[in-house]
Amino acid sequence: MTGTIGEESVVTEDEARRFETIRYEVRDHVATIMLDRPEKLNAFTQKMVDEFRELWREIHFDDDVRVVVLRAAGDRAFCTGVDVHNGIHKPENKWSWEDPGIGLGPKQNLVWKPVICAVHGMVAGGAMYWVNESDIVIGADDTTFFDPHTSYGMVSALEPMGMARRVPIGEVLRWALLGLDERMSAERAREIGLLSEVVPRDRLWARAHELALIIAKKPTAAVQGTVKAIWDSLDMTRSGAQQVGLTYAQLGNPIGTAEVSRADFVKPDWTLR
């Protein structure tokens, strides 16, 4: 398979690092991860969970990586959740079961480098493990979100719990309860804050890369400290988060400001969103 990985680069199988279920490349301090099971609508398997767990650990320790772009191969779907025919390993002892999101999600793997998730086509069920833990989510204009769990008689719990931290609870419940009977459009997802931007399909990957390059040029201590502070605050009270946030600033600001040369600093031409 040949495809565009980073913006302005056409990467062949030999150039991109290939796992069994994903492809990976680092260029200009931007890591690009591509879900690569288009023939299965990028549904995830235990193998994909294991590969993501391995890759997140590598990204965590690789200081050359400053930003991550996550996207998917194929025309029809970003991801349709778990592969029901070749899915997740479940031990006989149910108390040993593990949420696949523990392997798939960047934040559960302590990755504080910003993750930009670029979605298209169908985004269903377990695909939300990635969307819920990304820092910026943009979508193509053909994106639709839906959750098939209840239609198949299954409780929808883990994915909407993460989603409820991003968007109004009423929207989460509607998404989860209506199942296969309704899909949320890209425009509606933007209205409720699930997507921060909607772009034409042919601009999706380029736009994600543009945003990544902007962030990658900023001091890494400031960027990663910001990501960690905001996500950590979600598990705290308001006053507790403010105290911890001050500590993060005290730790990160001296490192980050030292990376900025005042003599060479030029304010960018800002854009209005």
List the helices and strands and how they pair.
Layout: E1 3-4, E2 10-11, E3 17-18, E4 22-27, E5 30-35, H1 46-61, E6 67-72, E7 77-79, H2 101-104, E8 115-119, E9 122-124, H3 128-132, E10 136-140, E11 144-146, H4 158-163, H5 169-177, E12 184-185, H6 186-191, E13 197-199, H7 204-216, H8 220-233, H9 238-258
Helix pairs in contact: 8-9
- What's the number of helices? 9
What percent of residues adopt helix (DSSP H or I)? Answer: 25-40%
Class inferred from helices and paired strands: alpha/beta
In CATH terms, what is the fold-level topology of the largest domain? 2-enoyl-CoA Hydratase, Chain A, domain 1
**Which blocks of ≥5 consecutive residues have pLDDT under 50?**
1-14
The tally of strands reads: 13
If classified by CATH, what would the architecture of the largest domain be?
A: Alpha-Beta Complex
The outline comes out as: globular
Order of helices and strands: EEEEEHEEHEEHEEHHEHEHHH
Strand content: 15-25%
Descriptive keywords:
single chain; 273 residues; 2-enoyl-CoA Hydratase, Chain A, domain 1; 2 domains; seven-stranded mixed sheet; four-stranded mixed sheet; 9 helices; 13 strands
